[in-house]
Model the fold of this input.
Amino acid sequence: MSRLHLPVSFGKNTDQLLAMIEGSDPSQSYDLLANLKNLGKSESEIVSLLALSSAKWIDHSGPYIGHGILNANPTLRSIELMAGDDADLPLLQMSMYVSELMRHPNYGPYEMQQIEGIEGDSETETAADLSKAIRSGSSRYMAEKLFTGLYSQAGRSTGEYLLYEALMQYGENEHRLLLPYHTIKLLERNNWENAVTCLRPTVQYLSANPDISHGVKAEQLSKTVDFGEIISRGDAFDQENSYDLTRMLLNSVLGNEMIVLADYAKRSTLQDMYEAIALSSTILLLNSDLEQHSVTGKHCILSMIKDRDLPDRIKKIALLSSLEGPRARRIKAYILKSLDAYMKVPDIPETASEEDLLSRLEGEILKGQQENAFKLSGSYVRSGYSTDRLAKALLSICFRTESPFESLHTSKMLVGMRDVTVSSESDMKWIHLAAASRFVAEMVKKEKAASKTAMEYYRKYREIVGTD
Done:
């Protein structure tokens, strides 16, 4: 007897590997990782399998979502930056997290089913129908079918349609953008293999309880912004103009940030605006209560506005929406210190070699000394030492001292802070990784007990694979 509905399938070998992941208990995550390694699977292949497992067995229809597929690309970035020392620890943390998620009562039981796509007469018509279905908030399954149909018509360009819809909802929750952005980055690594399955969680989430009120405001204001004109001003960086914009963004009346950005877009270079958004975001993090997402959504936006392959219509909405995330608005409502309070640069300790600064920084972080960590990290960047080496040190501490849930959040923030620092031309570029160091030091105190299980499993994993 034939069945009307069948679960998604990826071929015998992949289905067997996914079944291995689904059947793995969180307390046996080290065995799962060792088995996948013994089968010859690379870090990228293992992370991609964990992401595919998340898509197949975790319901993403909200209001909360599983972070398995969302964290795949940032986890691979962490592994690349850590290169060698403890590089398998992010893999273990992610496998623990995905395994826990599949057993969480809020996300299942669920198994993604095969569906037939629905297509309009043209790509434009299907895209318009998909947008209506997503924004209706009551047509999740129809949205998934329309998305599947649109992918058959538009291919990889379908990702751009989802990014636009995500930006329209960004003001309701930063995860609305984080999920499609990082899924697309993972697909770019994997030549868009299993793209429809990997992106259906995004469609599920965007179709649940959408709020486009902030996006509508950005859409209206975007008509006054000419992104081509911004690009035509070249790459020059006016630090004082960027500082002025930063002060305006942080000190303006809550809700006026879009208007400020639209105004400065008429006379600023893209680098001026990039630096101001990045600096504003980091200062919001410094004023937050352990809130990684006060910056992670903005890191996506900063990447998008410099992406030459994205259409201007998307980049304009992204630019104007950069400070619209709910966490940014919440922090700004009670911000204690603005730009000028952080403009005094940290003193560089005498005879401070790169090794000495890194050693002292790690010691202060592990003692939970936030302000000392902030100053030493700032001094390190100002000394011109390796940004990647600092990021690697912070990632290693993060994965050794935090639980799976928190480490995956913090590492995403750390990778973004590294990228912003590398792209910055500002005299205050030191502040991004300094703020990140302060954050990790604060998390050490909070997560001291939670990280013990992960490190115990990591020791067992290293024993199995023969690494001492």
Q: What stands out?
A: The chain has a mean pLDDT of 93. Residues 214-341 form one domain.
